[in-house]
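PROTEIN FOLDING TASK:
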Amino acid sequence: QVQLVESGGGLVQAGESLRLTCAASGRTFSTTAMGWFRQAPGKEREFVAAVSWSGGTTYYADSVKGRFTISRDNAKNTVYLQMNSLKPEDTAVYYCAANDVLLIAPNGYDYWGQGTQVTVSS
């Protein structure tokens, strides 16, 4: 079992930045791939970014490439999502997820946090 708790969401203006944090507990975090996903009202949950257990491999959705950065600190059992140049279309609930295998499909992840709201005003 893995427990995941997200934090760092909030209300910002377009062009500003936020850093989301996901704290993990319950199993060996350093061998777990991690992903960030988001879901806007009326839309399906979509992939944002993912990182391998070592941090050496990362994937990004085209919509966030160049603006968002995923990273992890295995000593702190934490994964981060640095979000720069935020746009109103980034508004969503953001979830972190854990899995044995590095994936971009949300239905492949075994463990999920409760989510944190990010709202970007224009």
In short: DSSP finds no helices and eleven strands in the chain. The two ends are 40 Å apart (CA to CA). The chain has a mean pLDDT of 94.
